[in-house]
C-alpha cells in the first residue's frame, strides 16, 4: 500500500513538473499564443475557485453561491496593496486572502445556522452586497474599474494553484476534513457523536473564502483592470457549475470541471451570442447521462499503476 501511494505521488509530481515545463518552455521560446496563455492562467484561477467551493458545497454539504464576493474582496484588497501602497506581490496576495478569510468567518457565523436554499440566498445576497460596495467606492475606481499592473506570470499562477490544491487535499484527508464529511452525510448524527458542527462548517467556509480571495488576487494582478461587474452572481454560478460538473465531493472532479468549462468557454469565445446556449446544452446532456457529475464523489487515482507493478512483481516470483 505504501509503495503504491509513493508511486502515485511520484507519477503525479512528474506530471505536474512536465506540464509546467512544457508551458514555461513554450513561453520562453515565444511560441505560445497570448490567448492560450490567458486561458491557462484562467484555468489555474478557476481550479483554485472550484476546489475551494467544493470544500464548502461538496465536502461539508453546505450550499453557498456567494464565492464571487470573496473573490472580489481578495482582488480589490490585493490591488490596493500593490497600487496604493506599492507593496510586494506576495504580501498583496496574502492580504487579499486573509481579508477574504476574515469576511468568510464573519459571514459564516450567522449564515451557517441556515440550511439549503436559505443559506444559498444569504450567500448570494452577500456577494451582491460586496459588488455594490465596490461599485460605489471611488477609492478603487467605482464602476469604471481599478487599473492594476500585471505582475502575475504563469509560474506564479501555476505553483499557487498547486499549493492551494495540496493544502485543500490535506485538509480533506485530515481529521477535520473527516468531520466535515460526516456533517455532509448526516449533520444530526455528527452532532450526536460529539462533533462541533458549527465549528467545522465555519472552518470550511473560512478556508474556502481564503482561497477564493487568493484566486481573486491572482486575477487582479494579471488582467490589468478589475471591475465590480466581473464579480456578479453569474461568476458565482460559473464556479458552482464547475464543481457540479466535476462532481460534488470530488477534488479531482472540481479540477476537471474547471479545466473543461474554462477551455470550452475559451473555444466558444468567437461565438459570444451562442456560447452560453451551447454550454447550457452540454450541461443538460451531461446531467441526463451523468447526474452526479463526471467523477461523482470519486477521486481520479493512479492506482492502476500500483496494481500493474504488483502483477509484474508476482509474475517474476
From TrEMBL:
Question: How would you describe this protein's topology in the membrane?
Answer: Multi-pass membrane protein
Compartment(s) where it occurs, according to its Swiss-Prot or TrEMBL record: Cell membrane
What molecular function terms (GO) are annotated for this protein?
branched-chain amino acid transmembrane transporter activity
Q: Which UniProt keywords apply?
A: Cell membrane, Membrane, Transmembrane, Transmembrane helix
Q: Which residues cross the membrane?
A: 35-56, 63-83, 89-109, 116-134, 154-172, 202-227, 239-264, 276-295
Can you name this protein? Branched-chain amino acid transport system permease protein
Lineage of source species: Bacteria, Bacillati, Bacillota, Clostridia, Eubacteriales
Signal peptide positions (record): none
- Pfam families registered for this protein in UniProt: BPD_transp_2
* One GO term describing the cellular component: plasma membrane
Give the species. Desulfosporosinus lacus DSM 15449
Keyword Thylakoid annotated: no
